Amino acid sequence: MNNLTTSSNPLFSIIIPLYNKANFVKSTIDQVLNQRFQNFEIIVINDGSTDASLDVVQNIKNDKISIFTTKNQGVSAARNFGVSKARTDYMVFLDADDSWLPNHLENLKNLLDAFPDCGLYCTGYAKKIKSHVYPASFNKVPNDVNWYGIIPDYFESSITNAIAWTSASMVPKSVLLELKGFDEGITFGAGEDTDLWIRIALKYPVAFNNDVTAIHNLHAENRISNTKTDLRTFIDLDKYDSFAKNHPSLKTYLDINRFSIGIKYRLNGQHVLAESYFQKIDPNSLNSKQRMLIKKNQQTLIVLKYLQKNLRKWRINLSPFK
């Protein structure tokens, strides 16, 4: 089913994959409709929702919105399908429970005007846990208010937090088509996003505005120890090792991602798989906290994860990445 957009010549296509987010999607779309920059279309891909998500979107009456329903195939397939339906040259991604400030699209438009030949455009973002907001920090990026420019080394600047986060990113459609979009075979840990950003950053400049205009709403703590990681497919980091020979910072970036995946496996009690990731890491790629954590057993990691969760109640955000 679809509702056709009637607005003419939009600049951006806002791609929103939707799966069982009935309690959040109206607020998310309202924030898009309230953007200061208004030249866009919204493409919602209802990825086989089983709750009232589709009804909620259908009740938002605005001719900027197109709705497509598909069988449930995952977020990558939904995004790729949305790109195939887009009428514009620039794809802006937004998950159905995340938030934008009113100047988000305006900042992306300014980045595009300033740097028209990039493969990836990103803005600053923050993580929100309950009422607490934690702005992401980036390695070797100026802290000047509303700084924008080309990131000299995407991988070096993404050591603490990735420069690109999906709900704060825009990609030219031509780049997505050239690189065949999101890898639909990756099904765990936002690896489909990381994989695409690596492929783009290896080939194209990345533009960034450090002004925080997107919010990642974490509605509940991810109980990693209960996650069935054995039923999911992580990103294949090894396929980028050959590129790391000419990009030393990429090796560090890959190893930090190996650390993250290995910790998830160890928290889940899958020690052999955890070790298979840890053994490929150059210890020099990790900071002291990360080197300490890969030596801890499952029970210790669970206790530390619980401690991290509870400290956030006092706005103390401990992270192994900084």
Structural write-up:
The structure is a single chain. This protein has helices at residues 25-33, 53-58, 75-85, 104-114, 154-157, 173-179, 191-201, 241-244, 248-267, 271-278, 288-293, 298-311, and strands at 12-18, 40-47, 65-70, 90-93, 99-100, 120-129, 132-135, 148-150, 169-172, 206-218. Helix 1 links the parallel strand 1 and strand 2 (40-47). The chain is globular. The longest helix is centred in the last third of the chain and has 20 residues, at 248-267. It is 34% helix and 19% strand. Helix 9 (248-267) packs antiparallel against helix 10. Strands 1, 2, 3, 4, 5, 6, 7, 8, 9 and 10 form a 10-stranded mixed sheet that branches. It is of the alpha/beta class. The protein has 12 helices and 10 strands.
Total number of beta strands = 10
Helical residue percent?
25-40%
Structural class: alpha/beta
* First-last Cα distance: 46 Å
- Biggest sheet character: 10 strands, mixed
Q: Count the DSSP helices.
A: 12
Beta-strand residue fraction: 15-25%
How does the overall form come out from the CA principal axes? globular
Rounded Rg: 20 Å
User: How do the SSEs run, as a string of H and E?
Assistant: EHEHEHEEHEEEHEHHEHHHHH
Spans of at least 5 consecutive residues whose pLDDT stays below 50 are 1-6, 220-231
Average of pLDDT: 91
List the helices and strands and how they pair.
Blueprint: E1 12-18, H1 25-33, E2 40-47, H2 53-58, E3 65-70, H3 75-85, E4 90-93, E5 99-100, H4 104-114, E6 120-129, E7 132-135, E8 148-150, H5 154-157, E9 169-172, H6 173-179, H7 191-201, E10 206-218, H8 241-244, H9 248-267, H10 271-278, H11 288-293, H12 298-311
Parallel strand pairs: 1-2, 1-4, 2-3, 6-10
Antiparallel strand pairs: 4-9, 5-10, 6-7, 6-9, 8-10
Helix pairs in contact: 9-10
